Amino acid sequence: MNGGGDCAGLNAVTRGVLRAAEVRGDEVVGIRRGWAGLLEKDTVTLKYDDFERLVGEGGTELETSRTNPLKRDKGLDTVARNMNSLGLDVLIAVGGDDTLGVARELSAMGQKVIGVPKTIDNDLAGTDYSFGFFTAVDEAMKMIESLQTTGRSHSRIMVVEVMGRDAGWISLYAGTAAGANMVLIPEFNGTVDDAVKLVNERRSRGKKSTVIVVAEGVNLVPRGKAEKDEFGHELFAKAPGESNASYLARYIEEKTGYETRSTVLGHTIRGTRPNSYDRVMTSRLGIRAVEAAHAGKFGVMVAISGASVVEVPLAEGTKKKYVDGSTWKELNQFFV
Ligand code: F6P
């Protein structure tokens, strides 16, 4: 079962599970549409043969959803009852902190559950990286490079917004990999005026174009905090529903007079085909989840530690991992 937002490598995890199960003679039932599938008993019998060619396929054949049984009346009991009536020996739940949080509750109720940590945001503790992250970074990096090219051609300031609800990992890694000039992330909140300062400084050094990456999770000048005109009207509050990129671009152009454009990468970095790292790691995670099941290790998640796959308590997957000070200090030196 997959839960939460999709990401590159989900099919490869399923394929890994199916291969390990086939070798051991296990029967595999796919739960469709995340927890919704367990609330409604929406299942499908899976065979390795059906997934043999899907190691490089983006998205998820099983589909996913953000349905949360903890928000439904007796949702968890229904899920547990359906797991029993379906005769499931173990549930392999692939997801981020929300999905793994439900998995942890089920495990506490005595259900046999194994987790696989997944999110492009890379914000899960207990795993060095969550799969889908590096693919998303690769995609974002390519797009940022394209924006650099067109930005330089037109002497423009380019602002690009990248997904990452609570953490700035994607922005930081993609910005570093593409050689962006500034990265604004929730953990180390730069301000819109820092961006203006950098643009002006770079101009004084003869650099006519500047590329700024802003994470979607950054809280840019909410209403009530913005600069006011002489009548007390807020000049630069972010409009309701306005993207960070659009707001920041508007602000920079207004303050510097330099032509500025904004782009929101949004879901494009999520729906793509997995890169080689994510294909290999997900294949290993799928295999290891089945091995853990056969070893009777429940209430754990299979996670990445360096170049290895390890088992850690499921509860780890529900803790958040933010960009730490030392990584930021190291990489921030490039943002000039
Ligand atoms: O799955 C994580 C994530 O991609 C976040 O980066 C983003 O904020 C969110 O999902 C978007 O969710 P949805 O696909 O439901 O719009």
Characteristic terms for this protein:
336 residues; alpha/beta; Rossmann fold; 2 domains; 4-stranded mixed sheet; 4-stranded parallel sheet; 39% helix; 15% strand; elongated; binds 6-O-phosphono-beta-D-fructofuranose
Can you walk me through this structure?
The chain is an alpha/beta fold and 336 residues long. It has two domains: 10-132 and 272-318, Rossmann fold, CATH 3.40.50; 134-269, Phosphofructokinase domain (Rossmann fold), CATH 3.40.50.460. Helices cover 39% and strands 15% of the residues. The chain is built from eleven helices and ten strands. It has helices at residues 10-24, 35-39, 48-51, 75-85, 97-108, 133-154, 169-178, 192-204, 244-256, 276-294, 325-332; strands spanning 28-31, 43-46, 91-95, 113-117, 157-162, 182-184, 210-215, 260-264, 300-305, 308-313. It has a four-stranded mixed β-sheet with strand order 3-4-9-10, sandwiched between helices. Helix 1 packs parallel to helix 10 (276-294), helix 6 packs across helix 7 (169-178) and helix 8 (192-204) packs across helix 9. The longest helix has 22 residues, at 133-154. It binds 6-O-phosphono-beta-D-fructofuranose. 6-O-phosphono-beta-D-fructofuranose (F6P) binds at residues 4-5, 66, 119-121, 163-165, 216, 270.
Structural class computed from helices and strand pairing: alpha/beta
**The top level CATH class name of the largest domain:** Alpha Beta
Rg calc? 22 Å
| Bound chemical compounds | 6-O-phosphono-beta-D-fructofuranose
Provide the CATH topology of the largest domain. Rossmann fold
